[in-house]
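Running this now, will post back.
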Amino acid sequence: MKNKEILIEANNAVAAGDYEGFLMFCAEDTKWTFVGDTMLVGKEAVRQWMAANYIEPPKFDVKKLIAENDFVTVSGDIKIAAKNGEAKSYAYCDIWRFHDGKMAELMAFVIETEE
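Update: finished.
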């Protein structure tokens, strides 16, 4: 599979609530940076973050998906259920770096928006 297809399949797993299915596409030492907020290193850190933050599967609305060499950039809108049950809306831009067919690194820019 090409990197773009891998990311689409991985994000489909997240949207279906299959977080372990998503993690299959990640490198063991995957590194996630939420710019201005959090940094995660390794699948276990990502697993714990997803368990805490994806109470319900997020809803993605992808606007752009661009792939070149080892990088895939995706931007759009996402709705995530908060712990109090309310859904929050965000605009996001994710820059993924792939290595050996796995998602090795993420730099995520996420901004809360109004619906």
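DSSP finds three helices and six strands in the chain. More later if anyone needs it.
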